[in-house]
C-alpha cells in the first residue's frame, strides 16, 4: 500500500488510533500487544524498503502518532509486568516517577528533533484536513485532485439516501455488545 498510494499515512494513523482507544477503554490484552507490535515493526521495516519512502516513517510528523502509540503500548506492557512483581506502594512511586520523567524526556526530544530538522513538519495533506482552503492556496497539485475537494451537503444526502435515517439504529446495534472489533 505504501508504494501505490500516498494516502497510506491515514491508515498508518487510523490503526494506532484504534489501539489507543482500546487502551483508554482498558481493553488491553496480549493479543492487542502482539498484533500492534508486529504490525508496527514489520510495516516500518517494509515501508522503508521502498526507495522514494526511505526514512520518512521515522523522520516525518505524519508517522509520529504510530510511533507514539507503539512506545505507549510497550510502556503499558512493561507496567503490567511490573505491577505483578512489585508491591502497590513501590509500583505507585515508580509509576509517577517514571511517567513524569518519560513525558519530560519525550517532549524535549521531540522539540529538539523538530527544531534541528530531523523530524519534518506536517505536510500540506494534513493541513488541508483542518483548513479545507489550505491546499487551494498553498498546494495547487493537491487542490487539483477531485477527491480532495469538499462535497456539498446535497451530495451527502443524495449518496447516503436512507442510511441517514437508519444510522442511529445501526450505531445502537454496534455498541449493544461492545468488543474489540466493534470499537474499530
From TrEMBL:
Pathway(s) this gene product operates in, as recorded in its UniProt entry: Protein modification; protein glycosylation
Protein EC: 2.4.99.18
GO cellular component, one term: endomembrane system
An example Gene Ontology molecular-function term: dolichyl-diphosphooligosaccharide-protein glycotransferase activity
Single GO BP term: post-translational protein modification
TM spans (from-to): 6-25, 32-52, 64-82, 94-115, 153-175
Protein topology in the membrane: Multi-pass membrane protein
Cofactor(s) needed by this chain: Mn(2+); Mg(2+)
Domain Oligosaccharyl transferase STT3 N-terminal: 1-184
Record-linked InterPro entries: Oligo_trans_STT3 (IPR003674), STT3_N (IPR048307)
Superkingdom, natural source: Eukaryota
Reactions this protein catalyses: a di-trans,poly-cis-dolichyl diphosphooligosaccharide + L-asparaginyl-[protein] = N(4)-(oligosaccharide-(1->4)-N-acetyl-beta-D-glucosaminyl-(1->4)-N-acetyl-beta-D-glucosaminyl)-L-asparaginyl-[protein] + a di-trans,poly-cis-dolichyl diphosphate + H(+)
Keywords linked to the UniProt accession: Glycosyltransferase, Magnesium, Manganese, Membrane, Metal-binding, Transferase, Transmembrane, Transmembrane helix
Record localization: Endomembrane system
Family membership: Belongs to the STT3 family.
Protein name, UniProt field: dolichyl-diphosphooligosaccharide--protein glycotransferase
Record lineage: Eukaryota, Metazoa, Chordata, Craniata, Vertebrata
Amino acid at each position: 500500500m505504501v508504494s501505490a498510494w500516498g494516502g497510506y499515512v491515514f491508515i498508518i494513523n487510523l490503526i494506532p488510533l484504534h489501539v489507543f482507544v482500546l487502551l483508554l477503554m482498558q481493553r488491553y490484552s496480549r493479543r492487542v500487544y502482539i498484533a500492534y507490535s508486529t504490525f508496527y515493526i514489520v510495516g516500518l521495516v517494509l515501508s522503508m524498503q521502498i526507495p522514494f519512502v526511505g526514512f520518512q516513517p521515522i523522520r516525518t510528523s505524519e508517522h509520529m502518532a504510530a510511533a507514539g502509540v507503539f512506545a505507549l503500548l510497550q510502556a503499558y506492557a512493561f507496567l503490567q509486568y511490573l505491577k505483578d512483581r512489585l508491591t502497590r506502594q513501590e509500583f505507585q512511586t515508580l509509576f509517577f516517577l517514571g511517567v513524569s520523567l518519560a513525558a519530560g524526556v519525550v517532549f524535549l526530544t521531540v522539540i529538539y528533533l523538530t527544531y534541528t530538522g530531523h523530524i519534518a513538519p506536517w505536510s500540506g495533506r494534513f493541513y488541508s484536513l483542518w483548513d479545507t482552503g489550505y491546499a487551494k492556496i498553498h498546494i495547487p497539485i493537491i487542490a487539483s485532485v477531485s477527491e480532495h475537494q469538499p462535497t456539498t451537503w446535497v451530495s451527502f444526502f443524495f449518496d447516503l439516501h436512507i442510511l441517514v435515517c437508519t444510522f442511529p439504529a445501526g450505531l445502537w446495534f454496534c455498541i449493544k455488545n461492545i468488543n474489540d472489533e466493534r470499537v474499530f
